[in-house]
Design a protein that fits this description.
Strand content: 35-45%
Largest sheet: 7 strands, mixed
Helix content: under 10%
Strand order of the largest sheet: 12-11-10-14-19-16-17
Radius of gyration: 21 Å
Number of helices: 6
Number of strands: 31
Distance between the termini: 43 Å
Bound molecules: CU-O-CU linkage, copper (II) ion
């Protein structure tokens, strides 16, 4: 493959895998007739220098009535940004929303003032420029707003998209590309009578996180994607506020996990199911080369039981662990490349735990009692005026994160990447989604994790927090400084 065509492809799909995807191979809602997502607003032509307008938009999410959304770039999901390793990300955010917002580049090691911290906001009518060099492994990163106490609402209202980094190491592997490389944003939503994305969390919702009973793939309920037979690379991002997906195919076919949050694993791991918490990404190769034309291969979230019941009781379509279909891959055309799962993927240096300079402990709590208390980290709620830890740039550290509550928490840190060294006390081992370089990891109730943390190169303020967005907004977030 020569450089030029690839380059053009990047530019064309720059602000919109979402859109590029819809127009060429639309997701269609089952039974809704022709795909509804073709067309849409004109796309900014460039990715490295583009403007993302945060604004209100009305789009058809369900077939019967339009939904008012808050979006980046007027589309839902937000446009997919593609950047090559070593290039500049250059995005201007224009805020046309009625309240402050910003952009956080989840998983990227951005300079502190470019990171989209909860207090670095664009007021309504104002703009912010995000300009920094992306020097990071190829992978499926993402972006979303991060204003203190309003992240859950804004993300739920439709603001989230992929940020895909590409590099030579990955390109050399010849993984499925073009139409065989499919980013899918997975989110749950409530089906309300007026078809709005109404966000009115009850006290119970604030404790559990806001859960919906319908799974959306790239913004489409009951999504189906018409595909050509062949090996496919699916980039799966859990952009839900609180929903944990136990991913698997309905026919239980095995797939190969090739990448997690921070890019490729050392080698593929074959499995039939894995858990993906809010904020986490996983990439897998699934073989659709032997399926007869007309077959629908459905990715779904499989049911599971929480070890300790969620507050408000178990069961029901909203409960954590409820099953839901996510997307059907409908094999429509023959003739795709058979493809081959590479035996080796990338060189990954295992975390040198013996060289770690110190151990830090983070305790996630919800307070005592049946109803719990406010979510905290090390007993404190987020305060933008208080720095809870100072960590040296470039250091290797061991972080022990313990979940001393009866609900799951996806732990996420800005400004660093880590490896999951050990899962203790939760009754589950390290799964394929835990391998490789991570920025988000799910903790089950009463579980403790040992993380090998590589502190990033950029000095300044960053946050770590629970990526259950209701917990984050309630203060399960801590400000730290890389010094
Ligand atoms: Cu995706 Cu601080 O978050
Ligand atoms: Cu982040
Ligand atoms: Cu939490």
């Amino acid at each position: 493959m020569s450089d030029q065509p690839t380059r053009r492809r990047f530019l064309r799909s720059a602000f919109g895998s979402g859109l590029a995807l819809w127009s060429t191979r639309p997701f269609a809602s089952a039974g809704a007739g022709p795909a509804r997502h073709s067309g849409g607003p004109a796309l900014p032509p460039e990715l490295e220098a583009g403007t993302l307008v945060a604004g209100r938009t009305t789009r058809p999410v369900w077939p019967d009535r339009p939904t008012e959304l808050w979006t980046f770039g007027g589309v839902y999901p937000s446009p997919t940004l593609r950047v090559r390793r070593g290039e500049m990300l250059n995005v201007r955010l224009e805020n046309r929303l009625p309240e402050p917002t910003n952009v956080h580049w989840h998983g990227l090691l951005a300079p502190s003032d470019m990171d989209g911290l909860p207090m670095d906001l664009a007021a309504p009518g104002a703009a912010l420029d995000y300009v920094f060099r992306v020097d990071q492994r190829a992978g499926s990163y993402w972006y979303h707003p991060h204003p203190d106490m309003r992240t859950a609402f804004q993300v739920y209202s439709g603001m989230a998209g992929f940020l895909i980094v590409e590099d030579e190491e990955e390109r050399a592997l010849g993984l499925p590309s073009g139409e065989f490389d499919v980013p899918i944003l997975l989110q749950d939503r409530r089906l309300l009578a007026d078809r709005s994305f109404g966000y009115q969390p009850s006290v119970m919702d604030l404790m559990n996180g806001y859960l919906g009973e319908v799974g959306l793939a790239n913004g489409v309920p009951d999504a189906s994607l018409r595909v050509t037979a062949g090996l496919h690379r699916l980039r799966l991002l859990n952009g839900s506020n609180a929903r944990i997906f136990r991913l698997g195919f309905r026919d239980a076919r095995p797939f190969d996990v090739i990448a997690t949050d921070g890019g490729l694993l050392d080698r593929p791991r074959r499995t039939t199911t894995l858990d993906l918490g809010p904020g986490e990404r996983v990439e897998l190769l699934v073989d659709l080369s032997r399926d007869p034309l007309g077959r629908a291969v459905t990715l779904e979230s499989l049911p599971f039981q929480m070890a300790a019941p969620m507050l408000g009781g178990m069961g029901g379509p909203f409960a954590q662990g409820a099953s839901m279909p996510l997307v059907s891959l409908e094999v429509e055309r023959a003739g795709g490349p058979a493809g081959r799962v590479p035996e080796r993927l990338a060189h990954l240096e295992p975390f040198p735990a013996t060289r770690a300079e110190r151990t830090r402990a983070f305790t996630l709590e919800m307070g005592p009692g049946m109803m719990g208390g406010p979510p905290t980290i090390n007993g404190r709620r987020f305060d933008a005026g208080r720095v809870d830890a100072r960590v040296p740039a470039g250091a290797l550290e061991l972080w022990e994160v313990s979940n001393q509550s009866t609900m799951p928490h996806p732990f996420h840190a800005h400004g660093v990447q880590f490896e999951v060294l050990e899962r203790i006390g939760g009754g589950v081992g390290i799964g394929p989604q835990d391998l490789g370089l991570k920025d988000t990891v799910l903790l089950w109730p009463n579980e403790r994790l040992r993380l090998g943390v590589r502190i990033g190169p950029h000095r300044g303020l960053f946050v770590l927090h629970c990526h259950n967005l209701e917990h984050e907004d309630a203060g399960m977030m801590s400000l730290f400084e890389i010094v």
